[in-house]
């Protein structure tokens, strides 16, 4: 079901990209400089700096590099892009990371990446080639140019933040950064994780069997963190940590999209979270990522 819904979305995107590819080529050579994206204020296109490929043929991922599709000029792209992000759309932890990248790009910092799609519905995360890279057999994970693999979405985000610190998505100063991190940690470990467990125990895209014990445990466990977050958002702030988007927004939006996708009804009375959600998900910066 997940694959069907994702395929339907992707065919719309593919048609859109096909139309775009008939536009005149950019004058100066690399895909980095290809079509500016009207969705972002500075023309930064989340995908224009990234080549997408899939984990099929993942032997070459683990070996000498990614299978290269027949795109003219690809050599120059490969020389420029040394970071490979292994990812799966809509899955909550990769989505958190994609939202972070999109927010950063919209603010003018486009991080050059090559994306490798790992199809979790087909179990590609456990294929020998992917498992050899990341023994945890899950996404997202990042491979650096020297081969080092970084699993864990937050570790990857912090790596990006340290390498490309401006504009900061964690805030500035010890106090603000601690506050943002505290919000993000609770959202991730108390809410996103619970949502993921409940969806997989009710409507699993990976085919896990229903499990009522898991549903009741995590439904109860996430009630208080949700209520506290709801109260926090009730002071009129625009984003989770204040006036600007931070990693806390990325984690919350990823969790709530997965809840929508999995048809999980959150408890009643979370009006401030609901209002934040409606504001956040329609922003141009994130529309292409929040597809459910
Ligand atoms: N704590 C990890 C969690 C990663 C994770 O659980 N990823 C899920 C997708 S959201 C996955 O790859 N699941 C596949 C599996 O467990 O087989 C992170 O933040 O990156």
Largest beta sheet: strand ordering: 1-3-2-4-5
> How many DSSP helices?
11
**Unreliable sequence segments:** 12-50, 57-79
User: Helical proportion?
Assistant: 40-55%
**Residues in β-strands, percent:** 5-15%
Number of domains: 2
Q: What would you call the structural class?
A: alpha/beta
Q: What is the CATH superfamily of the largest domain?
A: Glutaredoxin
Straight-line N-to-C gap: 13 Å
What fold name goes in the CATH topology slot of the largest domain? Glutaredoxin
Attached small molecules? glutathione
Please identify the top-level CATH class of the largest domain.
Alpha Beta
The succession of helices and strands, N to C, reads: HEHHEHEHEEHHHHHH
């Amino acid at each position: 079901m997940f694959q069907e819904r994702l395929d339907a979305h992707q065919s719309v995107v593919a048609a859109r990209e096909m139309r775009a590819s008939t536009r005149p080529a950019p004058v100066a050579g690399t895909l980095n400089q290809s079509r500016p994206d009207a969705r972002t204020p500075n023309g930064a296109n989340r995908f224009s700096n990234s080549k997408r490929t899939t984990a099929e043929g993942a032997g070459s991922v683990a070996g000498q590099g990614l299978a290269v599709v027949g795109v003219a000029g690809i050599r120059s792209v490969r020389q420029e892009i040394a970071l490979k992000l292994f990812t799966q759309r809509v899955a909550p932890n990769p989505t958190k990371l994609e939202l972070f990248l999109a927010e950063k790009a919209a603010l003018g910092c486009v991080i050059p990446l090559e994306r490798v799609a790992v199809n979790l519905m087909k179990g590609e995360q456990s294929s020998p080639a992917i498992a050899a890279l990341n023994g945890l057999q899950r996404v997202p994970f990042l491979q650096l140019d020297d081969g080092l693999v970084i699993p864990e979405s937050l570790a990857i985000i912090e790596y990006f933040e340290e390498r490309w610190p401006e504009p900061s998505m964690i805030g500035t100063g010890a106090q603000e950064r601690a506050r943002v991190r505290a919000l993000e940690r609770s959202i991730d470990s108390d809410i996103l994780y619970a949502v993921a467990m409940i969806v997989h125990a009710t409507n699993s895209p990976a085919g896990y069997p229903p499990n009522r014990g898991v549903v009741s445990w995590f439904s109860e466990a996430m009630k208080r963190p949700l209520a506290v977050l709801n109260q926090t958002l009730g002071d009129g702030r625009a984003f989770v940590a204040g006036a600007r988007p931070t990693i806390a927004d990325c984690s919350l939006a990823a969790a709530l999209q997965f809840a929508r996708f999995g048809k999980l009804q959150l408890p009643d009375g979370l009006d401030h979270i609901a209002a934040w959600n409606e504001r956040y998900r329609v922003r141009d910066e994130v529309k292409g990522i929040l597809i459910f």
